[in-house]
Amino acid sequence: MPTLPLVFMLIGLHFGRYLLSAGGAWAFFFGWKGNPLTATRRLQPGPFQRADLKRELLASAVTAVLFGTLFGVVFGGSTPVPFVRSGAGAVLEFFGWLGLIVLIHDTYFYWSHRLLHHRLVFPRVHALHHRSTNPSPFAALAFHPVEALMQVIWAVPLSLLVPIPSVVWLAFSFLAIFVNVLGHCGVEPYPLSWQTHPVLKWLNFATMHNRHHVKFDGNFGLYFSFWDRWLKTNNGPLTPALSPLRRERETG
Ligand SMILES: [Zn+2]
Ligand SMILES: [Zn+2]
Q1: pLDDT at 100 over 80
Q2: Alpha helical stretches, state H, 76-225
Q3: pLDDT on residue 45
Q4: What are the residues facing 203 on neighbouring strands?
Q5: What pTM, to 2 d.p., does this model score?
Q6: How many CA atoms lie within 13 A of 130 on its CB side?
Q7: How far is the CA of 244 from the centre of ligand 2 (A)?
């Protein structure tokens, strides 16, 4: 597809699915007043502030424009990369590539997130995202433009140098926004028992990222908590989800 139409299409895709996923999470957790999950798993007691929601939405719109423009310019005029195999082989290819991309992104996210917390970088770049100390689902793409570019720039050389099928990248981009919205949803949606399960505890929980927005000093992961656990940046009580965070916030 020519560059300009692709840029517009990708901006629409990024912003449209951000609105759908963040709006959907908002409607499910907070629009549905009697939602038992929200009642028992809310991570912070306070209401969301209108100024926070407005800032989160506006910054996310800018991020969507940057994402769409970057990928539109990089991939304009190129043809989609197909699967090498068909049938069951293509399914294997799909999940193999998807798993690899998620592992690469998780590692990149952890280390770039730690860089964003460096005292010289934080005030200029990452502070915008952290202005939400009680983040809503709409904070999912609320980044400074430099951070927005940092978030996705890793995918450019990988997609240009490695023949990963285009469908895998598309699926990954949906998974990434889903995980991102979940991390900012203000509620711990997973069963609390998962946080101590021998296998599932390696996931990154909304509790962890919410705590990151309260204390700023640990829990830098995205999909998994491998890096945080290995490097002992996995701070704070994890379970039960509600009461420890509430206590910390109320007692400072
Ligand atoms: Zn941070
Ligand atoms: Zn965040």
Answers
A1: yes
A2: 88-116, 127-130, 145-153, 155-161, 166-183, 206-215
A3: 85
A4: 224
A5: 0.91
A6: 19
A7: 19
